[in-house]
Specification:
The protein is an alpha+beta fold. It contains seven helices and 46 strands. The protein has four domains: 3-144, Galactose-binding domain-like (Jelly Rolls, Sandwich); 157-241, Sandwich (Immunoglobulin-like), CATH 2.60.40; 259-541, TIM Barrel; 556-638, Immunoglobulins (Immunoglobulin-like, Sandwich). The strands form 13 sheets. Strands 33-32-31-30-29-28-27-34 form an eight-stranded parallel β-sheet. A six-stranded antiparallel β-sheet has the order 3-2-4-10-7-8, with no helix packed on it. Pfam families: DUF4982 (PF16355), Glyco_hydro_2 (PF00703), Glyco_hydro_2_C (PF02836), Glyco_hydro_2_N2 (PF22666).
Length: 639
């Protein structure tokens, strides 16, 4: 059976300054300079080296493999001075067989390169391309006869459910390296055997399957595939299985298991303040907990392949997922082969996840593309590849705002979504309604979604009169209030994904807010602060009873009368000022009260059994400890 040892400790890292230090994995050399602005974070080749003793194994009957789960963005792997493999693509798993190369004591060296080039994606985008070994490395001992390890980094097991007339047929294809007999067992969530089959192309049947039914009931079976030699089990792979159907209708949106299931959710980047993309499982867990608290039912995992652990979490909690490759912003004629290899790895490594419903082939590719014919041909190749490799899922892409509805790139994939920031980068929130209506009028049979929309909001910037471009928490909330109502008016949209769930690093950014950061997140980069907009979405989407008073951080005001805005998913909210009831309103999601501001006041909002409190005070002049932040807005924004 398999034996797996992590190689995470005692790495000698030679960094951009040529100095060698001791580090632990996961690691990136851009954790600081990739988050401070200036577009000057270091991109080039750094070296990681460690030593390890050869694992105990029988060379006659066993093999040893090295597994790398994420090295950004190109890797050259040397074992005992010998180049054993290279890999281009910073977000996927790759493996190499090393049995015949091992000595008693071994030196493993990985040359990692995130330098600028014209052949490995991504090269141009609004996020930081952290260099480093930022996911796990493992040393695996397996039988010479084993379930495949050398097939695009996948598990060697491909599971394809088909549901019809309330029954399920499940095809389980197993790729074997060596020889042996394959047996398949399907277990229910309680661990009971519900179906068995034999062979490398096995068929399982269930008369009454329990469906994977989104966030309310994300039921998972477990498929155990065993390889036996001479009657002895020599290898085993376990994979969770979710049984579901889905479809998309241009007039009625997304359907899950035959019923309407409107997709409303967020996009996610994987990086964090101070650690870049070298994040832990605990950090993944925290991200998922925040997404679930919000009430989202879909996640766009942008703009690259995410950690397998996070796809597992999406399976476990019922999140419908858009998965994509980093074919982004600029078509590189020399990068076509890399788009194909990254797509093959994405599909092979993630084929079994029930959460995934579509493969994203590109994002905003028309921003900077000279060879349009080659770009379009690249898209057709990827679209055909997806359908050949996976006939069960749909294809999609995200179009740039300046990519018009008639652009041919928007009509290649099965679905299409747009990244539109109408009301943020350009004036006029009402333009969102016009744009959706126009597209739907011209292409009534084409499913349309919003893959990105949002506004910058910083929890230390505030205004009583928020305006577009001011980066205040108040304008971000105002923007999202409009967008949620807009989507309610256009229920035929196949999916909407907020940009973004979390603030993230974009080192090229220097204008507005904090340099090196994109502040469109509903939660801050360090995950410590839920912005008001977070609670707005919670009011719209979550079933968890709550009430939230907005602008709590905007404590000091110069006005004599102020608006107290409250978000809640309850139907009635009462407001108390200094213990006296100031008013009560019945409505949905957003409640607004006008109250006098004299001296210091204590405000309490009550909705059902939920309460929230805040304090505000009147000042004749702005707090002298505040500073005026200059923005393009005409309103004053005090920090």
């Amino acid at each position: 059976m398999r034996s797996i040892a992590k190689l995470m400790q005692d790495w000698q890292f030679t960094g951009p300054d040529g100095k060698t230090t001791l580090v632990e994995l996961p690691h990136t050399w851009n954790a600081k300079d990739g988050q401070d602005g200036g577009n000057d974070y270091w991109r080039g080749t750094c070296t990681y080296s460690t030593t390890f003793a050869a694992p105990a194994f029988d060379a006659a009957s066993q093999e040893v493999w090295l597994q790398f789960e994420g090295v950004n963005s190109s890797a050259k792997v040397l074992l005992n001075g010998r180049n054993i493999c290279t890999h281009d693509g910073g977000y996927s798993t790759f493996r190499v067989h090393v049995s015949d190369l091992l000595a008693k004591d071994n030196q493993l060296t990985v040359e990692v390169d995130n330098s600028i080039n014209d052949r490995v994606y991504p090269q141009k985008a609004d996020f930081t391309f952290y260099g480093g070994i930022y996911r796990d490395i493992s040393l695996m001992v397996v039988s010479k006869n084993h379930i495949a390890l050398g097939h695009f980094g996948d598990t060697g097991v491909k599971i394809t459910p088909a549901l019809k007339d309330g029954k399920a047929d499940i095809r389980v294809e197993t790729l074997v390296e060596g020889e042996g007999a394959v047996s398949v067992t399907l277990l229910d969530a309680a661990g009971n055997t519900v179906a068995t089959a034999e062979g490398a192309d096995a068929q399982l049947h269930l008369d009454a399957p329990h469906l994977w039914d989104g966030v309310k009931d994300p039921y998972l079976y477990t498929c155990v595939v065993r390889l036996s030699s001479d009657g002895t089990v020599v290898d085993e792979v376990s994979t969770r299985v979710g049984l579901r159907t889905f479809s998309v209708d241009s007039r009625n949106g997304f359907f899950l298991n035959g019923r309407p299931y409107p997709l409303h959710g967020v996009s996610r980047h994987q990086d964090r303040k101070g650690v870049g993309n070298a994040i832990t499982r605990e950090m993944h867990d925290e991200d998922m907990a925040l997404i679930r608290e919000l009430g989202a039912n879909t996640v766009r995992l942008a703009h690259y392949q995410h950690d397998q652990y996070f796809y597992d979490l999406c399976d476990q909690y019922g999140m419908v997922v858009w998965a994509e490759i980093p074919y982004i912003s600029e078509h590189l004629p020399n990068g076509r082969a890399n788009t194909v290899s990254q797509m093959k790895e994405l599909i092979c490594q993630n084929y079994n996840h029930p959460c995934i419903v579509c493969w994203g082939v590109s994002n905003e590719i028309t921003i900077s593309t000279r060879d349009k014919a080659d770009m379009l041909d690249n898209h057709r190749e990827l679209n055909d590849l997806c359908h050949t490799m996976d006939s069960t899922r749909l294809t999609t892409l995200a179009c740039y705002a300046m990519c018009g509805p008639f652009n041919p790139v928007a009509h290649i994939t099965d679905l299409v979504s747009w990244n539109l920031y109408l009301g943020w980068y350009v004036p006029g929130l009402f333009l969102n309604d016009l744009w959706m209506d126009f597209f739907h009028l011209v292409y009534p049979g084409r499913p349309l979604g919003f893959s990105e929309y949002g506004a910058e909001g910083m929890p230390n910037l505030h205004s009583s009169k928020p305006r577009r471009g001011d980066h205040t928490e108040e304008y971000q909330a105002k923007y999202h209030e409009y967008m949620l109502r807009c989507f309610d008016r256009h229920k035929w949209m196949w999916a909407t994904h907020v940009w973004n769930m979390f603030d993230f690093a974009a080192d090229a950014r220097d204008q507005g807010g904090e340099p090196g950061m994109n502040h469109k997140g509903l939660v801050t980069f360090d995950r410590k602060t839920r912005k008001d907009s977070f609670y707005l979405y919670k009011a719209w989407w979550s079933d968890e009873n709550f009430v939230h008073i907005c602008s709590k951080r905007f404590t000091d005001r110069t006005e004599r009368e102020m608006e107290v805005k409250v978000y809640s998913n309850q139907k009635s909210v009462a407001l108390y000022v200094n213990g006296e009831k100031a008013g009560e309103q019945t409505g949905e999601h957003v409640f607004s009260f006008r109250v006098p501001l004299t001296g210091e006041i204590e405000v309490r909002a009550v909705a059902g059994d939920c309460t929230d409190t805040a304090s505000f005070r009147h000042l004749d002049t702005p707090n002298p400890s505040y500073k005026l932040v200059k923005t393009k807005s005409k309103s004053a924004n005090w920090v």
